[in-house]
Design goal:
By secondary structure, this protein is α+β, with helices and mostly antiparallel strands. Strand 31 (389-395), helix 3 (409-415) and strand 32 form a beta-alpha-beta unit. It is globular and about 70 Å long.
């Protein structure tokens, strides 16, 4: 028997939102929405306003009063400030045409007033400046780059033309072009930018495999990047002098990738790196950072991330990560060793404090350590000291993404419903070196799933966890893994919930070439090439659709019919296979939703359906 529900926003309104959730985890307006003026006296952030998300400014003191700069409308993607913070440049996608619109918001005694600087401009780069000017690079045509400088009143100060046949450009502070990747040759050749045109070719030493160029110094011929050096498989921060070939490595440890770098206040150097092994750490390069690391950890429990520094390095903007509550933003006085919170307190229901995740690892038979995070349910919902509680296995997507010790909104949502939650960094996840990540290649439905199931068996041996009530839940690859876990270990799970995960690996591999040709090579490496008979047989052997007859858990699939990442046919094919095998399953089709369920109505409806399913089938 098969249950099919096809819903649109109009249907949701007609039904009176019967299965809509009010406390679902929402997508934040922007991924990195906090910034600080260069003098450290103003903090800018995106948060809720009277009529929706808004860009706010708050004075950088404990009694600073927040004020709205402008509404944060759909399509708005970035903002940048000057040194004083009295002007903000906001970029949004142009409506009905390619390119971006740039609007300057200027502060006066009368409030904030806008001035349109560019319309439908092909913006290549801009960032907060180290001076009182805005610097914007646009690419008006092939091999053409222009660097525009505006003052805080929106007047053009200068325009510089660059003739660069570039596929990519590495910038220094104030988006000054320093290196470019030559587009005229098939093999990668980097050239120095000289006199606003191409200079000599730059030899990146063979011992460095660069994954991402970050920025370049304007003081010396050094480019900073994330890469792997020699026989060390860990992702490191490196500085490469393109004249001498000298390589400087900033912290290196086998099997441990760094997450980010801490840039110097003037933007010309790396002062530290950040990584996570069980919990996050800041590894100082500059001694000025080292003095505060222990102090900050003792105050916050975990070392906060330094995301902004004033030019005199007295004021730091911190992203405070905790395992039991949402992220917070604080200003820290580096001299006085004092700090205070600057973001508005989050009062949404799902953001209530929850039991923190505990980090552990599990050794596999083939020599890997699988990290995972286990969190208990909220005591008022299910008291683990009195009885055993159900377990939710929350599987991350990617599959090369990773889970962290930090608070997770989806996990907290499940904890508030009485579930233990385990999050697993199976092989193929990022953060643990290239060997660990590549161990997931062509193992999407095999060893990666075995890692998940091994951790589930281990943690469910705890008497406080009810091993008869285990649910696998995930989105994107996590949704695929939820289904694959149920086909590979059908007696381990009571329920499986897949959001845009698919269940037909053969269809996924075959459609990748026509649907996403630029990703076909990556799919062939990670999954297999369906045009090669041996690969096709291996793909079929890992596809859940081939094992529908043995699938036992109660299943709900939520499918976005306008998904541009996971072809909806993958989920529909698995549903058909289950139906042919006489299995019971629920299929929720969201007619206008995208892969991320980015619309509030779609997310509310999806989480409402998940809540209903969990209560009825899984608890």
């Amino acid at each position: 028997m098969k249950f099919l529900i096809s819903l649109t926003t109009a249907a949701l309104l007609f039904m009176g939102s019967a299965n809509a959730a009010t406390d679902y985890p929402r997508i934040k307006p922007v991924a990195h929405s906090y910034s600080m003026s260069g003098d450290g006296r103003q903090v800018f952030y995106v948060s809720g306003g009277p009529s929706g998300p808004a860009l706010w400014r708050r004075g950088g003191s404990q009694d600073g009063v927040p004020e709205i700069v402008t509404e944060w409308r759909p399509g708005t993607v970035r903002f940048a400030t000057t040194r004083s913070g009295d002007a903000v440049l906001v970029m949004k996608m142009s409506e009905g045409m390619p390119g971006q619109d740039l609007v300057l918001w200027m502060h006066s005694d009368l409030g904030w007033t806008p001035k349109q600087l560019m319309t439908a401009a092909p913006v290549a780069a801009f960032e907060s400046s180290t001076d009182e000017f805005f610097h914007v690079v646009i690419q008006p045509g092939p091999d053409q780059f222009q660097r525009h400088t505006f003052d805080t009143g929106g007047r053009t100060v200068s325009t510089e033309d660059y003739a660069l046949p570039a596929m990519d450009v590495v910038y220094g502070p104030n988006v000054i072009p320093r290196l470019f990747l030559d587009a005229r040759v098939s093999s990668p050749v980097w050239r120095e930018v000289s006199n606003r045109g191409e200079g000599e070719s730059v030899a990146i030493p063979e011992g460095v495999i660069v994954e991402q160029y970050l920025f370049a110094s304007t003081h010396e011929p050094v480019v900073f990047a994330l890469g792997r050096v020699a026989d060390n498989d860990a992702l490191q921060a490196v500085g490469v002098n393109w004249e001498t070939g000298h390589i400087t490595s900033y912290f290196s440890q086998h099997g441990l990738d760094i997450d980010s770098v801490i840039r110097s206040p003037d933007g010309n150097a790396i002062d530290g790196v950040r990584y996570e092994r069980g919990k996050p750490y800041n590894q100082p390069i500059n001694t000025s950072l080292a003095h505060d690391s222990t102090f900050l950890e003792s105050d916050f429990g975990l070392e906060p991330e330094i995301i902004g520094r004033s030019f005199d390095d007295r004021t730091w903007l911190l992203r405070v990560i905790r395992p039991d509550r949402p992220v917070e933003y604080w200003l820290h006085d580096h001299k006085l060793k004092t700090h205070f919170r600057v973001d508005p307190v989050n009062v949404e229901n799902y953001s209530e404090i929850v039991p923190p995740s505990v980090y552990a690892t599990l050794a596999t038979k083939d020599g890997f350590e699988i990290p995972y995070y286990l969190a208990a349910p909220k005591k008022r919902v299910c008291d683990v000291s009195q009885r055993s509680c159900p377990l939710a296995v929350l599987i991350h997507g990617g599959p090369t993404r990773r889970d962290r010790i930090a608070y997770d909104a989806d996990a907290a949502w499940l904890q508030s419903r009485g579930f233990w939650v385990v999050r697993i960094n199976y092989r193929g996840s990022s953060g643990y070196g290239l060997r660990f990540r590549r161990a997931g290649d062509r193992q999407w439905g095999a060893a990666m799933i075995d890692d998940v199931n091994a951790v589930v068996r281990s943690v469910s041996a705890d008497s406080r966890i009810d091993s008869r009530r285990i649910s696998a839940i995930g989105s994107s690859y996590g949704g695929f893994a939820a289904i694959a876990s149920g086909t590979r270990a059908p007696d381990l799970y009571r329920c499986a919930i897949s959001i845009n995960g698919g269940g037909d690996l053969v269809q996924m591999a075959q459609s990748a070439k026509s649907r996403e040709p630029e990703l076909a090579r990556g799919v062939a490496m990670q999954v297999g090439d369906p045009d090669v008979p041996e690969d096709l047989e291996a793909i079929r052997s890992q596809s859940p659709a081939e094992y529908a007859a043995t699938f036992k858990p109660h299943l709900m699939q939520i499918v976005s019919m306008r998904d541009a990442v996971t072809d909806p046919r993958q989920s529909l094919n698995f549903d058909t296979a289950l139906h042919k095998a006489g299995k019971t399953a629920e299929l929720i089709k969201l007619e206008h939703a995208d892969h991320e369920l980015s619309g509030d109505e779609d997310r509310s409806l999806a989480y409402g359906e998940i809540d209903r399913f969990l209560r009825r089938r899984c608890k």
